[in-house]
Amino acid sequence: MKKRAITPTREEDFPNWYQEVIKAAQLAEHSPVRGCMVIKPWGYSIWENMQALMNSEFRKRGVENAYFPLFIPLSYFEKEAEHVEGFATECAVVTHHRLKKNSEGGLDPDGELEEPLVVRPTSEMIIGETFSKWIDSYRDLPLKINQWANVVRWEMRTRLFLRSAEFLWQEGHTAHATAEEAMETAREMLDVYETFAREVLAIATIPGEKSEAERFPGAVNTFTFEALMQDCKALQCGTSHYFGQRFAKASNIEFQSAEGGSQFCYTTSWGSTTRLIGAMVMTHGDDDGMILPPRVAGKQVVIIPIVHKEEMRAKVMDYCERLKEELDATVHIDTRDMRGGEKSWDWIKKGVPIRIEVGPREVDEDKVCLCMRTKEHKDKAFPTRSELVANISNYLDEIQQTLLDRSEKHLKENTHRILEQKDFDALFAGKGGFALCPWGGDRTLEEKIQKERGLTIRCLPFAHQGEKAKCFFTGSETTTWAVFSKAY
Amino acid sequence: MKKRAITPTREEDFPNWYQEVIKAAQLAEHSPVRGCMVIKPWGYSIWENMQALMNSEFRKRGVENAYFPLFIPLSYFEKEAEHVEGFATECAVVTHHRLKKNSEGGLDPDGELEEPLVVRPTSEMIIGETFSKWIDSYRDLPLKINQWANVVRWEMRTRLFLRSAEFLWQEGHTAHATAEEAMETAREMLDVYETFAREVLAIATIPGEKSEAERFPGAVNTFTFEALMQDCKALQCGTSHYFGQRFAKASNIEFQSAEGGSQFCYTTSWGSTTRLIGAMVMTHGDDDGMILPPRVAGKQVVIIPIVHKEEMRAKVMDYCERLKEELDATVHIDTRDMRGGEKSWDWIKKGVPIRIEVGPREVDEDKVCLCMRTKEHKDKAFPTRSELVANISNYLDEIQQTLLDRSEKHLKENTHRILEQKDFDALFAGKGGFALCPWGGDRTLEEKIQKERGLTIRCLPFAHQGEKAKCFFTGSETTTWAVFSKAY
Q1: Number of residue pairs across A and B with CB atoms under 8 Å?
Q2: Are A138 and A146 contacting, i.e. CB atoms less than 8 angstroms apart?
Q3: What residues pair up with A296 in beta bridges, in sequence order?
Q4: Which of B64, B70, B80, B127 best tests the A interface by mutation, with the highest count of A CBs <10 A?
Q5: Residue among B416, B404, B14, B436 at smallest CA distance from B231
Q6: Phi, psi of A259 (to 5 degrees)
Q7: Which of A27, A2, A16 is nearest to A290 (CA)?
Q8: What SS3 state is found at A150?
Q9: CA neighbor of A238 nearest in space, from A194, A184, A280
Q10: Collapsing DSSP states into helix, strand and coil, what is residue A25?
Q11: Fewer Cβ neighbours under 10 Å: the N or C end of chain B?
Q12: Does residue B441 sit in helix, strand or coil?
């Protein structure tokens, strides 16, 4: 078998393959601070591209960016009972505001705060408090605000991008005059996410509603979109919540209606995180590393000048520079003092969509060596320069489409409509995947299944509700369908 | 006297004028969390524009963005003695990682951490630790990394943008093989800042070196650029530090040199913050509110449709939409259901550089009413549409230049070369400003002057060193010149 860049391979050990790809692609690393990661330049450039593209979608929908405090006073956090219960076990708490020397010459916390501050795990309570001041009348509605921020949810077992104590995200918060409009917005933002995942990240997902057990603490409805990684485990890619008037009542978000009289607003929130980078690794990566969808790649094309003799350098470099100017793409020329093969492997592992090699022969013949990351490495093409320039966006589109096709195929092949217990058992005794089943159970039964088998309802998919069938867990007739899976 | 939008005026009460402008321009507000602010959409859009423009300057110089942990373990923080001493009195400290119910039904911190975590006041120690892993050989140098992040420095007396417990900033960190290259980078980044302040924010500053008393904790040299607000108090706009090998030794940042053998790196860091928004308010604002330099305005042009009769609406709106398409600028059409006068004042207070009013008469005559924020409000021009379209960038450039001219004039008029004690005393008994004086004193004398008179050395300006003169504080001959001022 051919030697691949990542050891172990996906088949040998998927979790360790994932860690090794993150390392080889220089996306991120564990920091000396327990549970916190360092996002390296290559990983952060992907996040910046995602931010720019999402911002543009948000803006089209009248959402404005703002920034709210990192800290939440305990008393604010306590205002919504279910909400605080959901986060109480994973909160970083600031209790002191300075340090003082101890007798051994080290430092101890000093200056105890009258009221401890929670480092935000999410900002409903602090943004709700602000909304209550910003909103007076129906003319102030709808209010649509987003913030890009770091949040902290204390985790004992961490995995880069997927689960860490601190992570980066965006959280949108909206307030509306009517329940219908709020619900529409919660659904619309899920659509924005799902479309972004499909069209930009090339990840096919199943959108749906969360079951009661999996809802966001305090939400009336939580919507989600769930992807299936190559190891057939699910990854929740982001969520959107409809709160009804629960958070508005907790934070006193009231408005004077057009007809007169004071009413509570209806609110939503919706978030997506750096976890999406992990989702891309586990969806598109192969045994040579990451594969980046062109629409989100920090560098879409890398040109590698191949110079064996110093006297050829100027000629090759001029050609590369001219090519860079001509290409309608994000192009980087790798001028590092390394062997060409080493450079190629570096960009393969990082997942750059297109590599172009240019040596003296290519310059003489006015053509290039073209490698697409979605093809086998030996599968090289030799277009002329003008062919390359004319077709570069087609090549990039082809890669983008190939990745989405693969993701859709994987999702389709591993989503099984299951009507009997034995098929359900067989699926999860084997490689797993998404089991689409009629569901007549309740929260207690769902939690029992989770405890005993490590399976959860990923969502009640929008596209599969209403058909009458028998729930094999309970024996009851139902029109509700649920997707079960193991999940990250 | 004419009624102005802001009460009090600058002359009546500058500090309160500042607070009122921030409020009227909807830039930011105090949050319920002591010392933390909420940056409102208008203020945040300015910050986003600043980020984009600075990122582009950083990128040109080979700086890459990354992200590092919010928390710093106490033991890391302690590695550089002067550094920790400088920040110990203003650190938010996380001591617990969950909450538990107390006997009264409230919540208490629970799960005490073995080692407390400091919420980063700056990231030298955590980034230094990471650099020590990233750098092996001279081939890895120079390493130039920037992060956009929130930091926390506990403050008891806070002022929006100028001084708050949490603020947003960028912090650049670089490592080099030689002292010369590191020093050059520290100076280069100060130039980047100073140019950015002048050309984008239209703020004239005096760049120079900090005196020992004002140096960043642990730095060998700190460079700064100091602006003079309209009340003749100084504002430090950003700093760049040369660390020599001090932080490299504390964090073990070593490299194998080209000649073989292990050496410590030379490092720098440099930062600028949301404080720059406050600097713009206090530099450009007038008694009607903020004035935004066009190059950093979220909206450069606001079109206000004036529709008194409903049947005219479509005609006016079509004209406005067409105008928006034609103008080479960031244009917003204000379609809110408010009176035109109210809208105008809203954008005046927010500081939008150009307002354009369009009513049915303007449509009929194919011309517009043009108001520039740097002129008196009654000073309106009535260019034809094609004149406006042809000249819009000239108008914006004119505003940008006017603001810079005013800032330079103010700086020049209020910077005094002072050679005698009595002139120094007279200046600070009066309206204050920058006093450029020969300086032969030491840290002790500087601290005495600060304590007794509230005056600090803002910088030893680059442009005024070397000339021999007598220091009137000490009577000694010196070639060092210092700029004294009261400061924010």
Answers
A1: 189
A2: no
A3: none
A4: B70
A5: B14
A6: -85, -5
A7: A27
A8: strand
A9: A194
A10: coil
A11: N
A12: coil
SS3 A240: strand
What DSSP letter does each residue of B387-438 carry, written as one string?
A: HHHHHHHHHHHHHHHHHHHHHHHHHHHTEEE--SHHHHHHHHHTT--EEEEE
Q: Decide if B97 touches A, using CB distance below 8 A.
A: yes
Residue count (chain A): 488
B223 in Cβ contact with B182 (< 8 Å): no
From the CA of B24, how many Å to the nearest CA of chain A? 13
Q: Are B97 and A93 in contact (CB under 8 A)?
A: yes
The Cα B75–Cα A107 span in angstroms is: 9
Q: What SS3 state is found at B440?
A: coil
Q: Which of B40, B65, B96 sits opposite A66 (nearest CB)?
A: B40
d(C-alpha B165, C-alpha B30), whole Å:
11
Q: Is A139 helix (H, G, I), strand (E, B) or coil?
A: helix
Q: How does DSSP assign A60-127, residue by residue? A: HTT-EE-B--SEEEHHHHTTSHHHHHHHGGG--EEEEEEEEE-TTS-EEEEEEEEEEEEEPS--HHHH
pTM: 0.96
Q: How far is it, in rounded angstroms, from Cα A427 to Cα A235?
A: 18
Structure tokens at A478: 């139902």
Domains of chain B: 14-284 (3.30.930.10), 301-395 (3.40.50.800), 416-485 (3.30.110.30)
Centre a 10 Å sphere on the Cβ of residue B426 and count the other Cβ atoms it contains.
12
Confirm if A471 and A446 have CB atoms less than 8 A apart: no
Please enumerate in sequence order all residues whose Cβ is within 8 A of that of A89, keeping only pairs 6 or more positions apart, or say none.
A154, B98, B99
Reading chain A (488 residues) residue by residue, the pLDDT tens digits are 467 899 999 999 999 999 999 999 999 999 988 889 999 999 999 999 999 999 999 999 999 999 999 999 999 888 888 888 899 999 999 999 999 999 988 899 999 999 999 999 999 999 999 999 999 999 999 999 999 999 999 987 889 999 999 999 999 999 999 999 999 999 999 999 999 999 999 999 999 999 999 999 999 999 999 999 999 999 999 999 999 999 999 999 999 999 989 999 999 999 999 999 999 999 999 999 999 999 999 899 999 999 989 999 999 999 999 999 999 999 999 999 888 889 999 999 999 999 999 999 999 999 999 999 999 988 999 999 999 999 999 999 999 999 999 999 999 999 999 999 999 999 999 999 999 999 999 999 999 999 999 999 999 999 999 999 999 999 999 999 999 999 99
Is A66 in contact with B88 (Cβ distance < 8 A)?
A: no
- 3-state secondary structure at position B124: helix
Cβ proximity of B175 and B130 under 8 Å: no
What is the pairing mode between strands A143-152 and A64-65? parallel
Please give the full DSSP string across B261-307, using - where no structure is assigned. SEEE-EEEEEEEETHHHHHHHHHH-BTTB----GGG-S-SEEEEE--
Other Cβ atoms less than 10 A from the Cβ of B111: the count is 16
Q: Report CA-CA distances (Å) from A161 to A40, A121, A166, B471.
A: 12, 16, 10, 59
* 8 A C-beta contact, residue B219 and residue B125: no
* Contact in structure between B238 and B291 (CB atoms under 8 Å): no
Tell me whether the omega of the peptide bond preceding residue A142 falls within 30 degrees of 0, making it cis.
yes
Residues A474 and A443 sit within 8 Å (Cβ to Cβ) = no
Residues within 8 A of B (CB atoms), A 56-75 only:
64-74
Neighbours of B448 (CB within 10 A): 13
d(CA A487, CA A428): 12
Among partner residues B45, B66, B70, which is closest to A166 by beta-carbon distance? B70
